[in-house]
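Project standup — Tuesday

K.O.: blocked on the structure for the chain from last sprint. Re-posting the sequence here as requested.
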Amino acid sequence: MATRRQAREWAFQMLFQLDANPVELDALFARFRNETRPPAKARDFAEAIVRNVAANMEAIDGMISRHVKHWRLSRIGSVERNVLRMAIGEMLYHRETPPAVVINEAIDIAKYFGTAESGRFVNGVLDTIRKELGIAEDDGKNVEAGGKPPAIRASQG
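H.V.: unblocked you, prediction finished:
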């Protein structure tokens, strides 16, 4: 039985693939399903994260760029960049999970696929973004059913 952690790892891997080799989402998902044979619930969660990130990439990347001083987005390592995208997407569009859980999972995934420094970097960026969004650390239900996440500003440059 796949866990949400496994689904997040799959979402990260799909985002990493998209970053390196952009393809249509349906083709990416078909390959993912054929290679991993994930249970439906985990598959749906992973694919939802990827769809939300892909649909809001410019705004999510703008958020990241505002919080990494003296670094262009392209200079951030692929592991860190895509873990950040995944976690921000989950904090914005899957609000049932408390941000502390999302951030801890992102740190663990960054350390697993990257380095210990990756985890520290991801932690710092995500915590400042969480604060910018006005989301309390333990707040997992701050958007009513059918509600919208907080507005995010597009990158200024």
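K.O.: great, moving the ticket to review. The chain has a mean pLDDT of 86. The two ends are 43 Å apart (CA to CA).
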